[in-house]
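ok trying this again, last paste got cut off
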Amino acid sequence: MPRKRHTAEEIVTKLRQVDVLTSQGRLVAEAVRTIGVTEVTYYRWRSEYGGLKGDQVKRLKTLESENKQLQRPERRENLRRPLMASAQPGRMIASASLHQFIWGMSAYIRYYNGIRTHW
């Protein structure tokens, strides 16, 4: 069976089809095969989109994308703020603080450029 990315609306429609087929007395496994997905996929979809309607799914997806966009700049700024506060002009930085500042800035640059490393 070839892989296909289903839209959220298609998923809700297929979940409703399975509900109708099972209410008609078919087994869940048969109903799932009828819509063309595996049982694992069906149960994953049901846990994520279970009681949602079409317009609610669209709203959920838009909220998730907005949430991702809002979180990313905030995380960058939260990383940067304490580092820049320790490097104010005209301020002497102790050796340990300098080391911490350089390490922190390199971590910030790696994060900003999308490089994920765990030390």
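PB: full thing came through this time. DSSP finds five helices and no strands in the chain.
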